[in-house]
Write a structure and sequence with these properties.
- The complex is a heterodimer of chains A (115) and B (109).
- In chain A, strands 2, 4, 5, 6, 9, 10 and 11 form a seven-stranded mixed sheet that branches. In chain A, strands 1-3-8-7 form a four-stranded antiparallel sheet, with no helix packed on it.
- Chain A contains no helices and eleven strands.
- By secondary structure, chain A is mainly beta.
- Chain A starts with a strand and ends with a strand.
- Chain B has 109 residues and is mostly beta strands.
- In chain B, 0% of the residues lie in helices and 58% in strands.
- Chain B contains no helices and eleven strands.
- In chain B, a hairpin with a 4-residue loop joins strand 7 (62-67) and strand 8 (72-77).
- Chain B is globular and about 40 Å long.
- Classes of the chains: A mainly beta (115), B mainly beta (109).
- Chain A binds chain B through residues 4, 6, 31, 41-45, 48, 50, 56, 88, 90, 92, 94, 96-109, 111, and chain B through 31-32, 34, 36, 41-46, 49, 51-53, 89, 91, 94-97, 99-102.
Chain lengths: 115, 109
């Protein structure tokens, strides 16, 4: 099973709302990632978790708050977002971060619209 | 800082033709190079991963090569099919992937 699942598929929220994105994998991977992808642009890395600890934060605004409750689950908590935060949010996982042999497996993404 | 470029940005070819997609990167200290495809509005599907010690990888009709000295990777697709239409992205790094700008491929039936 090489599947990464993400919920919800679509999310519309106002600028004052609080919502969460969820990502799950059952491949035993120890590294998990959040990416943001704007239309017609490549994905941009936001956060990396390695062994359930935050190892990379690419200077992401604090209105995005990641959480890794266990090795299979990754959340992204959203609060006071701006319309320019509307994008496709992709989750990925790999066996370990930094290994030369690692393939990153991506979920289908959550399409976020901020009104 | 690693920069990854893909040329052309878009490509249309008739069904059945062989084609090559190009990827260039600025930092030769790249751990591995991955090729992905992305269908509109969807997530990424990993196609091939080339480790830094390797020069190429093959999967079915796909063949990817890596030349670290010149900072280039190519993805060769043989006998193209309409189902191959998608955006193809290359990405390099060591867990922190830097993505190229992508090539939008259209196979004309």
């Amino acid at each position: 099973d090489t599947e990464v699942t993400q919920t919800p598929k679509h999310l519309v929220m106002g600028m004052t709302n609080k919502k969460s994105l969820k990502c799950e994998q059952h491949m035993g991977h120890r590294a998990m990632y959040w990416y943001k992808q704007k239309a017609k642009k490549p994905p941009e890395l936001m956060f990396v978790y390695s062994y359930e600890k935050l190892s990379i934060n690419e200077s992401v605004p604090s209105r995005f708050s990641p959480e890794c409750p266990n090795s299979s689950l990754l959340n992204l908590h959203l609060h006071a977002l701006q319309p320019e935060d509307s994008a496709l949010y992709l989750c990925a996982s790999s066996q370990d971060r930094g290994s030369n042999t690692d393939t990153q497996y991506f979920g289908p993404g959550t399409r976020l619209t901020v009104l | 800082k690693q920069e990854v470029t893909q040329i052309p940005a878009a490509l249309s070819v008739p069904e059945g033709e062989n084609l090559v997609l190009n990827c260039s990167f600025t930092d030769s200290a790249i751990y591995n190079l991955q090729w992905f495809r992305q269908d509109p509005g969807k997530g990424l599907t990993s196609l091939l991963l080339i480790q830094s010690s390797q020069r190429e990888q093959t999967s079915g009709r796909l063949n990817a090569s890596l030349d670290k000295s010149s900072g280039r990777s190519t993805l060769y697709i043989a006998a193209s099919q309409p189902g191959d239409s998608a955006t193809y992205l290359c990405a390099g790094g060591d867990g922190k992937l830097t993505f190229g700008t992508g090539t939008r491929l259209t196979i004309i039936p």
